[in-house]
Specification:
The protein has about 500 residues and is mainly alpha-helical. The chain has one domain: Growth Hormone, Chain: A. It starts with 15 loop residues before the first helix and ends in a 5-residue tail after the last helix.
Length: about 500
């Protein structure tokens, strides 16, 4: 007689399949966004676009994006699209899943449109193509990212299950980032890989992203779409003033976002790492991916112990320590120089482990701050916060990329035009050849890769030191919001008055 399968967590809301659908949706989002951001700058650089002009245009685009991200965060928290008959059959029931079902394919479509930019059109036409497709892609990112991230608040009201989902999601984020970085660099690498063009790889991956995100649209469910222990009538009221109050009252979210903003603004290497690796290491775009690969296994072991680390040191303290380690390793890399490859790889491995574990704790912090705001205001403002987080992530990512491009142009980057790294290598990177860059330009690349990100992480760690929301208190607030304990019980158990 077959043994009955024992349910280890009978009080959890989601089945293992339902959790898997959510993880798959997030993987699709990560792969889609990662592909666009990793390839965008080298793609435009090889299209012969002027880097200093590109840096300025990207900053202007982010001003526009600042408006649409926050507006959409407001809309998703206020508008119930399930009540709109035209969308009802597509969206189904729920709070955030309807938005996901309606919009999840758009970012992949606009990514493909961007990478179909013709090589033989004029500079002005290329810039127009970039502006239009980038704005469409950027807005579609918000349409996808805000519902996916906000779902963590409505999939379950069980805090243990939510923390488990966050830990697994954090590990998946790290694994996806490593695999994506290695695979994307390998596919376009002319020395170790097939040397495919950015367009070929991007279109193939976007189709794959849509496929793995479909199950969540078809079979996903939400089990925690309303708050408990609040005035029901007030909870249904969403005005611009309410949304502003939600943001204003959450000083912890502001600290978190400022810390993220600093690391993003100074992440000058992220968008140009493959281009930098190509020039620093004689056409080999994989050298800078090697430390990440070596760090993968030890980082995964530590990631699986993230909850134990948090219990011992606290989430805030862990973030600060890991940020300091990562920043210090980058600054030492800069001082040592890129020619000492062995030392460079060792330092890179330590930095890779620190950054990998840090990503887990970044996933833990945001829901805690949202629970704090829900507790203080009685309003479910997940959408506005994840829209703000999306804005900060995308805006500062582009600012970081723009800063990196600007610095490279100040160090006299030599504009080139090629379809792929393979074609660029054939043009020659030695002195006197078409793709050659001066020693000054090479040094500028090293500043962009190591020095500026290192300084940024140290500053970010300093800001996070002022984050004072205790982990246990956030868990009590989550239980109160879910109706597991009363507000009076919560107030008596909190470590201090908030």
């Amino acid at each position: 007689m077959a043994k009955e399968k024992v349910n280890k967590h009978p009080d959890w809301r989601l089945s293992s399949k339902e959790r898997m659908y959510y993880y798959m949706a997030d993987i699709g989002r990560l792969f889609g966004f990662g592909t666009f951001s990793l390839y965008m700058t080298p793609f435009l650089a090889l299209r012969g676009v002027n880097l200093s002009v590109l840096a300025g245009v990207m900053l202007v685009l982010k001003i526009i994006d600042a408006v649409d991200d926050v507006v959409f965060g407001y809309i998703i928290d206020r508008l119930k699209i399930t009540e709109i008959k035209a969308f009802k059959k597509i969206t189904g029931d729920g709070k955030y899943l309807p938005w996901y079902r309606l919009t999840f394919t758009l970012f992949a479509i606009f990514t493909m449109a961007f990478y179909l930019m013709p090589a033989n059109i004029s500079q002005t036409q290329k810039m127009i193509w970039f502006i239009v497709t980038y704005l469409l892609y950027d807005f579609s990112c918000t349409l996808a990212e805000t519902p996916i991230n906000s779902l963590i608040m409505t999939l379950t009201d069980n805090t243990e299950e939510r923390n488990h989902i966050l830990m697994v999601k954090g590990i998946i984020t790290v694994v996806s980032a490593v695999l994506l970085g290695v695979v994307l660099n390998l596919l376009v690498d002319p020395v170790n890989g097939p040397g495919l063009s950015f367009t070929q790889v991007s279109i193939g991956l976007m189709i794959a992203c849509i496929i793995i995100m479909v199950p969540m649209a078809l079979k996903g469910k939400e089990y925690n779409t309303s708050l408990k222990n609040t005035d029901g009538e007030e909870n249904e009221t969403y005005t611009l003033k309410d949304m502003w109050n939600c943001v204003k009252v959450n000083k912890f979210m502001m600290i978190f976002l400022i810390s993220s903003l600093i690391t993003g603004v100074t992440a000058t290497s992220s968008a140009v790492s493959s281009l930098i690796s190509f020039y620093l290491f004689d056409g080999n775009t994989m050298i800078l991916s090697l430390p990440v690969l070596i760090a993968f296994v030890p980082a995964m072991i530590l990631n699986l112990k993230a909850d134990k680390i948090a219990e011992k040191f606290g989430r805030r303290n862990s973030l600060v320590i890991l940020g300091v380690v990562f920043g210090a390793m980058n600054i030492i890399q800069y001082l040592v120089g890129y020619k000492n490859i062995v030392v460079l790889i060792i330092l890179g491995v330590v930095a890779g482990i620190a950054n990998s574990v840090r990503a887990i704790f970044m996933n833990f912090i945001a829901p805690d701050t949202i629970e704090y705001t829900r507790y203080k205001t009685g309003k479910d403002c997940s959408g506005i916060f994840y829209a703000l987080n999306s804005f900060v992530t995308k805006a500062v990512g582009s600012v970081g990329a723009s800063l990196g491009l600007l610095i490279m142009s100040l160090y006299h980057w030599n504009p080139v035009q090629a379809e792929s790294f393979e074609e660029l290598l054939a043009m020659g990177i030695q002195e006197g050849q078409a793709a050659y860059q001066s020693p000054l330009a090479i040094h500028g690349m090293w500043v962009v890769y190591a020095l500026i990100p290192g300084i940024g992480y140290l500053l970010s760690a300093l800001v996070m030191w002022f984050y004072k929301l205790r982990d246990k208190d956030a868990e009590l607030m989550a239980k109160c919001n879910a109706g597991e304990i009363t507000r009076e019980e919560c107030e008596t158990m909190l470590s201090r008055k908030y």
